[in-house]
Amino acid sequence: MRRREFIGLLSGAAVAWPLTARAQLVKKVPRIGFLANVRSPATEAFERGLRELGYVEGKNIVIEWRLAQGKFERLPAPAADLVSLNVDVIVAAASPYIRAAREATGSIPIVFALVGDPVGDGIVTSLARPGGNITGLSNMAPELVAKQFGLLRETVPGLTRIAVFSDSNPGDWQKDAEAAARALNVQLQFLRVRDPAEFDAAFDEMVRERAEAVMVLGGVYFYPHRNRFAELAMKHRLPSILNLREYAEAGGLMVYAASTYDLMSRAATYVDKILKGAKPATLPVEQPTKFELVINLKTAKALGLTIPPTVLARADEVIE
């Protein structure tokens, strides 16, 4: 071999080896797909949870946001897009996003955070062993409905009939609601509504059935229209108890629910475990541990209601 060729060969090897070694040392940055309606305080809570675990977006984690902007019927396309990007995990907090993600993939892990009855809705096989590629957190504790009814009963003296407004299939929560209602000698009227165009007819039906208050379970589909819901409840003089703090901010009377922000922050721990090798099928679904009571005193005054001191004393937040 000629001297020049030999030196060239050595030089090439010297250059190529460090490049190869460096390539082997570069770790793949995990990519999270996130299906949501809009960026919100809830999504910020998830990002905060990631930061607390040491993840910094753009540095050691990438989040691919896909937002419905209230157009839930269009979710299959962004879900399929996330699958085409081969993300490491998809966060689909509530039922409509989960359905879209599940239809798009049976292998990429999916994490939820705001599902009332994951077993009853057919999302997981059991809470202890979810099975499949989906796991996460439920926002409906078994005793939640009974406490919501109790708060309404304390606030509205003589309450005997409650309309239950939902956008999801009745699952175990309906059994809980019926049991709680029997214990308080309260009658329930169930209404399933997904399209906001049905709001007026639903409230008219409540009035015909002489409902004295309205309770919301679920509500993802009409969450973007919470102001309209609050307006109709006020128009028909119906005190309301709801399950997301934003409903009280929009004018609902009170919210007693699992803390959305806490659940979304805890969802980050599921993502962390999955990125470290855990399988969704064996990660148990967790129940909520933090609850919050939010009361809108402006709405109470407009309805002619006086919130009992015993209820006010339990409030985590009062809107005045």
How does the major sheet shape up?
7 strands, mixed
Q: Strands across the major sheet, in which order?
A: 7-6-8-9-10-11-12
DSSP helical segment count: 12
What is the correct CATH architecture of the largest domain? Answer: 3-Layer(aba) Sandwich
Strand content: 15-25%
SS-based structural class?
A: alpha/beta
Mean pLDDT, nearest integer? 88
- The total beta strand count reads 12
Distance from N terminus to C terminus (CA atoms, Å) equals: 89 Å
CATH superfamily of the largest domain: Response regulator
Low-confidence stretches: 13-17, 19-25
Report on this model:
This protein is α/β, with parallel strands linked by helices and 320 residues long. It has two domains: 31-139 and 260-282, Response regulator (Rossmann fold, 3-Layer(aba) Sandwich), CATH 3.40.50; 144-258 and 291-319, Response regulator (Rossmann fold), CATH 3.40.50. It has twelve helices and twelve strands. The protein has helices at 3-25, 41-52, 76-84, 95-104, 144-155, 172-184, 199-208, 226-235, 245-249, 260-275, 297-303, 309-312; strands at 31-36, 62-67, 89-92, 110-115, 134-138, 161-166, 187-192, 213-217, 240-242, 254-258, 291-296, 317-319. The strands form two sheets. It has a seven-stranded mixed sheet with strand order 7-6-8-9-10-11-12, sandwiched between helices. Strands 2-1-3-4-5 form a five-stranded parallel sheet, sandwiched between helices. The radius of gyration is 25 Å and the shape is elongated. The chain starts with a helix and ends with a strand. The model is unreliable at 13-17 and 19-25 (pLDDT under 50).
